[in-house]
């Protein structure tokens, strides 16, 4: 995926959201796109052999949660919050739609391929800052646990994680250091629960991704089948590093008095069933069950008193029809307007419910 480079927005103040949207629309013609309502930038990751680069997202994050009026809603996300199809009925991203519906201040930590390992470190930085959000939204994209994503050199974000993990508020550093893509992951095998156990190397999978057979051909169907298998039908276990990071994210937020809303990102399950059969649903449901049990195990009992923290979990994996995704056949989580609007509304509903039980 392509990372966008954007200028940082300095300082934090409440802005007229609709005016910001109009200004952004006038300035940008291409995707990915930014949220209108908050000081957030899709972070430029250091990929390949590059010179050191500033990390404006971190600077804006620190500024926002050092302010006397911090954003009440913190949203973690990946490219699902940023992407809009070129032929979509609306040019508003999920982040923009959510920003339009939320008036109490919102901050979006988002980047292409961002995952729980990055979110954990932002939560650690938040612990050191003087202000807090009231509620944090932590989406769970099932793809991040797959070997094809977890082991892909493009999505390690080692420079970002290193900078975040060593952040010192007394001596703040916002510079991403030089990074080189590692090939050490490419010989790892990808294991899928289909017809027994199918194993391919990550480098073989990346080769399949680069193929472009004729649409509708048998080779095209086989390619899609393999992609769905690799992205969603992996054999998940409780020791997965992304599960550990997800649990740590929740623990850190809990520890500083922030309520949390987690949800499973919608997937194109109808296409998955078409190309992989009913075993696709069985494998995905099994993995979701493991994820849900693990994250709920770290959250204390939910009370309804004024001094209680709150936690909420929703599963939207099988919520949306295939025509709501960018294409009806790809293994993508990117949504058309109908899907983006629905998810924004569900997040807003969860926020209102959590607000009633938040201690903030």
Residue-averaged pLDDT: 81
Largest sheet: 5 strands, parallel
The rounded Rg comes to 20 Å
Task: Give the number of DSSP strands.
Answer: 9
Secondary-structure element sequence?
A: HEHEHEHEHHEEEHHHEHHEH
| Percentage beta strand | 5-15%
Q: Which word captures the global form? A: globular
CATH class assignment: Alpha Beta
> Which structural class should the secondary elements be placed in?
alpha/beta
Biggest sheet strand line-up: 3-2-4-8-9
Integer tally of domains? 1
- Give unreliable regions as ranges: 1-51, 302-307
CATH topology annotation: Rossmann fold
Description:
The protein has 360 residues and is an alpha/beta fold. The chain has one domain (17-181, 238-269, 284-357): 3-Layer(aba) Sandwich (Rossmann fold), CATH 3.40.50. Helices cover 38% and strands 11% of the residues. It is built from twelve helices and nine strands. It has helices spanning 17-27, 56-64, 94-101, 116-127, 147-150, 158-165, 202-210, 218-232, 241-255, 269-276, 279-296, 337-357; strands at 53-54, 73-77, 106-110, 135-140, 175-176, 189-192, 198-201, 259-264, 311-315. The protein has a five-stranded parallel β-sheet, sandwiched between helices. Strands 1-5 form a two-stranded antiparallel sheet. Mean pLDDT is 81; it is low at 1-51 and 302-307.
């Amino acid at each position: 995926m392509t990372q966008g480079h954007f200028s940082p927005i300095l300082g934090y103040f409440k802005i007229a959201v609709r005016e910001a949207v109009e200004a952004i629309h006038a300035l940008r013609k291409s995707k990915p796109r930014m949220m209108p309502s908050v000081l957030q930038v899709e972070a430029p990751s250091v990929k390949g052999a590059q010179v050191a680069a500033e990390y404006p997202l971190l600077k804006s994050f620190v500024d926002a949660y050092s302010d006397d009026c911090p954003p009440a809603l913190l949203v973690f996300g990946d490219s699902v919050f940023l992407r809009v199809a070129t032929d979509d009925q609306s040019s508003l991203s999920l982040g923009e739609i959510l920003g339009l519906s939320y008036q109490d201040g919102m901050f979006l930590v988002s980047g292409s391929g961002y995952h729980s390992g990055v979110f954990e470190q932002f939560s650690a930085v938040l612990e050191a800052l003087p202000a807090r959000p009231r509620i944090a939204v932590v989406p769970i994209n099932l793809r991040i646990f797959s070997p094809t994503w977890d082991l892909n050199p493009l999505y390690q974000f080692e420079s970002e994680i290193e900078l975040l993990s060593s952040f010192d508020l007394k001596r703040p550093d916002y510079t991403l250091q030089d990074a080189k893509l590692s090939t050490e992951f490419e010989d790892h095998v990808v294991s899928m629960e289909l017809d027994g156990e199918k194993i391919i190397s990550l480098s073989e999978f990346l080769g399949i991704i680069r193929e472009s057979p004729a649409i509708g051909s048998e080779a095209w169907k086989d390619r899609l089948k393999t992609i769905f298998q690799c992205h969603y039908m992996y054999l998940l276990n409780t020791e997965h590093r992304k599960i550990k990071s997800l649990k740590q994210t929740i623990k850190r937020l809990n520890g500083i008095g922030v309520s949390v809303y987690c949800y499973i990102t919608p997937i194109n399950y109808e296409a998955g069933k078409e190309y992989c059969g009913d075993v696709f649903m069985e494998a995905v449901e099994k993995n979701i069950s493991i994820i849900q049990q693990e994250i709920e195990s770290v959250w204390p009992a939910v009370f309804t008193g004024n001094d209680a923290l709150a936690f909420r979990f929703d599963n939207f994996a099988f919520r949306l029809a295939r025509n709501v995704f960018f294409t009806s056949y790809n293994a993508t989580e990117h949504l058309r307007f109908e899907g983006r609007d629905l998810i924004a509304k569900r997040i807003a509903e969860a926020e209102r419910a959590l607000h009633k039980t938040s201690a903030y």
